[in-house]
What does this fold into?
Amino acid sequence: MRGEKSGRVRPGEGRPSEGENKMGTMPVPRLLLTMAVPMMLSMIVQALYNVVDSLFVSYIPDTAQVLQAGDRAVNALTLAFPIQMLMIALGVGTGVGVNASLSKSLGRGDPEQAGRIAGNAMAVSLCYYGAALLFGLLGARAYLESQTADPVVLEFAFSYLSIVTVCSAGTIGYMCFEKLLQATGKTTAAMAGQLVGSVTNLILDPILIFGLLGAPAMGVTGAAVATVIGQWAAFGVVVFLHFRYNREIPFRPSLLRPRRAVIAEIYRVGGPAILMQSLTSVMTYGMNLILSGVSDTAVIAYGVYFKLQNFIFMPVYGLNNASIPIISFNYGAKQEKRIRQAIRWGLVVASVIMGTGLLLLQCWAGPIVRCFSLSDQAVALCVTALRIITVGFFFAGANITLQGACQALGSGLSSLLISLLRMILVVLPLAWCFSRLAGADTLVWLAFPISEGVGCCAAAALTLRLCRRRLAELRIP
It folds into this structure.
């Protein structure tokens, strides 16, 4: 194929010419890093966003009525976290489908279809908010009661969860417009919104939780209010940047009208991606139930671990989010060599990130956990959990990268199968079995590295098979 050898594309072939779109022309290693670094920084900020609430509420002081208030507040946020992750799953999973479909349309030179995809993504996001609103009003308390009988933890968790769900339009809208910016390579613009939201949350958290600068001391409720305000600030920024700079994607009110074919295209990849992302919520809820049978301290340890591991996992997810539009664009443009390079470099960079995280958490688990104001028992169990679970980090990096490659090549089901293995089918049964044994507070954490190893074996086999089939199709005249 002469167009591939020269690096240029003939007009009319449906692929971009030199300089038209960097995803089809820039050297892949540089392109991946150019797109990934802003996303990775954005994801690190997102990890800070996730952990800062738990960090601050751990310092809520005891009162005559409530002892160990910090431990109980962290427990409460851990119980609410699966629903927050579910909302993120809906937004991010749909965004994956939008990202892949929209990038492919741009790669084929069809901006009108890209506009229809973007408009339908906005319409779907409104439906997601309606569901979150109803849950916050009608289902939040029953959900929390299924996980705890402690009245203090229950009230803490309900006050937090009801606010972040009823006022979730900001975070759902943010995720929609963030993906529209990422799909056209404007990752720095997407990061700007995330940065504004996270800084806003970071500033407001101590003010509203502890009653600084004349504000009332709102405790856990203050953490929820700060989170919501930060989310709306991020939403406002990305909406402005999208309509100001995303000129490749046309917008007219008529493009918001739901179209069956467009929604089907989005969910062909996005549907499995939503299910895949939702597995984090299911796993967290399942682990909360299992660990509550071990001890309340185990639930706290899991919550702290999960927030801390995001600092390692989130940059890899950012790298993955950068590689998906690159692979999708070049798949649409029939650039086989660039597809292979994107997957290979993604694996290399992900391994470096996860290896660094492994060393960091193995060597400094104690000092990191002691940043939280927790009981000595909770700190000790957190350190044990971190040192056992992080053994599986290398496998996890490869799993995330290969799942992204499958999504970008149009096989969301392969990604879903990989996620099912590592997040549900292996880890939950193993954790339940270990929780029934003597020494359960140590053994239960072994379920995580074992499940990542099993998932990695499956991911390698599925991705290799998919690449052979998809790339062979590109060579057919």
Summary: Residues 75 and 296 are 8 Å apart (CA to CA).
